Structures are given as C-alpha cells and as structure tokens.
Amino acid sequence: MNRYGAACTAGGVAPDAVDAGIVGDHVAALSRSGLAASSVARAVAAIRSFHGYCLDEGLLGTDPTALLVAPKLPQPVPKALDVDQVLALLDSVAGDTPVALRDRCLLELLYGTGMRVSEAVGLDLGDVDSERRLVRCFGKGAKERVVPLGTHLLGALDQWIVRGRPALSRGGAARVGDALFLNARGTSRLTRQGAWLVLKRHAERAGLGEHVSPHVLRHSCATHMLEGGADIRLVQEFLGHASIGTTQVYTRVSRHHLHEVFVSSHPRARDRPRNRAPGKRRGSATVWTS
Questions:
Q1: Which domain holds residue 112?
Q2: Active site amino acids
Q3: Considering the entire predicted model, what is its pTM?
Q4: What is the pLDDT of residues 118-137, one digit of tens each?
Q5: Residue 226 within any structural domain of the chain
Q6: How many structural domains compose the chain?
C-alpha cells in the first residue's frame, strides 16, 4: 500500500479520484519492476481491500478495482518420493511392538491410499472392511469416499487391529472409543501432529531428511499411480479431488517418466544401429554412416 499511496501522490491523484485505469497502470508498473507474481498478487489484494473499505464507508461512489485481474500464480509442482525412497521409508519401521505395528500401518495407509493426514487420523475401526478390502474416509467438506486396500496395507492393518491396537489400548479402551490410530500411550486418538512426528521420525531413519510430510506421501501415491498407467479420472476419484485440474498437476511430475517410456518404446526415439560399413549400397542409393 505504501507503493500505491506514493504512486497516487506522485501523480497528483486523490483517493476519491482514482479510476480503473490508474489502478491498472500501477499494477502493470509493479509487474514490470521485477516483483514476483505472488508479491504483485498480494498488492492487488491490498488495493482491493482498501477500495472496498472506501466504498463501504461512502468515500467512493464506485470501486475502481471491480474489473482488476490479479496475475496468475504458477502452480507449484508437488514433490514426490521415488519408489525406492518410499520402500526405504516403509522398511525403516523395525520390530513388532504395538507402536511399531501402528507406525507401519499408518505409513502404509498414507502411501497406499493417498489419504490426507486428517482423513487418516479420523478413521474409526468400523471404516475398515477387510473382507471387501475397502476403507471409508471423509475428506474435505465431510465428503465420503471409499478406497480399495492393497495387499501390503491389508496385512499391516490386520497386524495393527488384531495385535497392536488391543495391546496399546489396554486399560484405556473406554477413552479411545473406536479410533483406528491411537497415541503412543494408548489413551486417545492419534492427532495430526502425532502422525507428522511418526513420519518425521521414520523419514530421518530412512535418510530422507526433514522435508517428508504426509502430503508428500499423497503426492507420491498419485504420481506412482499415473506412472503405472492409471487413468487420471480414477486417480481423481481415488484421492477425492473435486476438480480434475487438481489431479492434472501430477501429470507434470511424470514428464520425466514419460520421456523415458517414449525413448524406450518408440522406434523413432532410439538411436539406430550403426553397423553398416561406409559406402554400402541400399538399392540404388549409397548409405553413409558417421
């Protein structure tokens, strides 16, 4: 707002005389000045808020920012682990103590279903249908979806529900209710923060650093499914995305994989064998090799 106020003062324009052209020129000048698109977008939001206030207070008759368009921000490409990194993470859980069984089950679930961490810690025992190999979760806006369970995840769930959870909740069963995942003391439902700490601990053990989050596992799940040939509409439903545009961002992550598949499968993408001697004739033409 300081820049905007200075620009209006320098142009001799009073706040009640600002029109859409002046605002547009100022935003264009910000873009030309080298500011990041995100900084320009924040400036546009501040200017809109200021003129909205002036309009509400009766200081302006019209809003000069009504048709103002903020710069489009580049959509960041999600970070994803490769398959070997995910396997290293899952293998980092050692032992068969109740807490180890819980941790292994949680990590398998986050990667195997692509659930958000809030969805995972919100699961109850009744949401898991082992016979039909399905789990029900509730996403944003309490929207329900049903996700299939893979073999490794199903095994981890069985170990946790049958062996780990009863041992961990001993003495506190009445307080934990039907929560699927419990804290390390077995006294309450595992929280989002607790799930983050579980992942952080095992990521460090696997040598993956501090930047692995539950959402990175969600990104990895989607990326690996697309690289494996899954239809993007099925991945959208699997992850619970309301818009296909949200899912399409993962196709950008898979471009390197797409290039590798193209090079290995398309006959005109590979180097041709160079085993002909210089000057060998094919029909009436002379074929030269380098």
A1: 83-259
A2: 116, 140, 215, 218, 241, 250
A3: 0.66
A4: 999 999 999 999 999 999 99
A5: yes
A6: 2
